[in-house]
Design brief:
Elements: H1 18-64, H2 69-112
């Protein structure tokens, strides 16, 4: 018995052949892609949420310094317009992340497929 068969790095050390290990690796490709996609989308959403909270804090600090209703109303209108614009830009970015995730899923699904039978050429 070789040292690698007793617990080394060979496929036989864990009782699986190379084809089985390759199959396991392929089967884990799609779940990893799903996790990556969720992290990418979540990161984008949380980044935007952080920007919104920061913008709202700045708005409230400025609102506190307003001396009359007209000034507060003007400040509020600017804030709402800015948030609408930011939301539109963020939506565009989220759509881009979604498209990248779809491509990631497609690649992972293709990789996860077992190899076909050899073609007779």
């Amino acid at each position: 018995m070789r040292a690698s068969d007793e617990g080394g790095s060979s496929a036989n050390a864990i009782g699986l052949d190379a084809e089985a290990i390759d199959g396991i690796a392929r089967s884990l490709t799609l779940p990893r892609a799903l996790i990556d996609a969720n992290l990418r989308a979540g990161s984008a959403l949380l980044g935007f949420a952080g920007q919104c909270v920061h913008a709202e804090a700045e708005f409230l600090a400025q609102l506190f310094r307003c001396r009359d209703l007209e000034q507060a109303s003007t400040l509020h209108a600017r804030f709402v317009a800015a948030m609408i614009g930011e939301s539109g830009r963020e939506l565009t970015e989220l759509v881009a992340v979604a498209r990248e995730n779809v491509a990631l899923f497609a690649d992972a699904a293709e990789t996860a497929q077992p190899p076909g039978p050899p073609s007779a050429a």
